[in-house]
Amino acid sequence: GTSHFNLQNYNGAIDAYRALVQNFPESEFASASLNNMALAQKKLQLLSDAADTYSKLALTYPNDPYAKDALFEVGKIKRDLKLYGEAILVLKDLEPKLPAGDDRKHEALAIIAESYQGSGDLDEAVKTLRQLSAAVPGSSPWKLEAFRQMGEIYEKKESWGDAVSIYEEGGRLSSNPQVSASFRQRAKYLRET
């Protein structure tokens, strides 16, 4: 499978990995084969198939080192396919299992919030963005991204006072002068209009 993959023969790689998993499910290479099969499916833009393969990996080999990454990939693919409810379910189940400080935990919260926005549940999106903001230190890029998205949501809801407050807080927290200025300019613009 790997030689096919390296030669960009992704269909051949999928067939080889599938054969290994079907013929030798207890092999030490079975979980890696499923992971690589999903990667090949993604290369071919077979995203639903890739999500199914990642799910199979996580369900069949739940204690495998690839399992959490596989579930994370399922959540990202479901979001990309605009299957927001499924993305939320997968990532809400996974997020508490990731250790504090793990960047995947922060990205999972961001994707959950984005999925709530995509499904039209802006209140849950803000709630999740607040959770993300609380989970990261100081002027972390994840915290600033959470503030940016909350500001945009408040603007969409025409909750101008909340938007101004969020942008001002983002401006205070950012250690990057350009980002800080951007937050403050947006707050000023909203106050003056």
Q: Which key terms come to mind for this protein?
A:
single chain; 193 residues; mainly alpha
Structure characterization notes:
- By secondary structure, the protein is mainly alpha-helical.
- It is built from eleven helices and no strands.
- It is elongated and about 65 Å long.
* Mean pLDDT over the residues: 94
Biggest beta-sheet profile:
none
The total count of helices amounts to 11
Which descriptor suits the 3D outline? elongated
Whole-angstrom Rg: 20 Å
Distance between the termini: 60 Å
Instruction: Please report which band the strand proportion falls in: under 5%, 5-15%, 15-25%, 25-35%, 35-45% or over 45%.
Output: under 5%
Topology, element by element:
Elements: H1 2-6, H2 10-23, H3 30-43, H4 47-60, H5 66-80, H6 84-94, H7 103-118, H8 122-135, H9 141-156, H10 160-173, H11 177-192
In short:
This protein has 193 residues and is mostly helical.
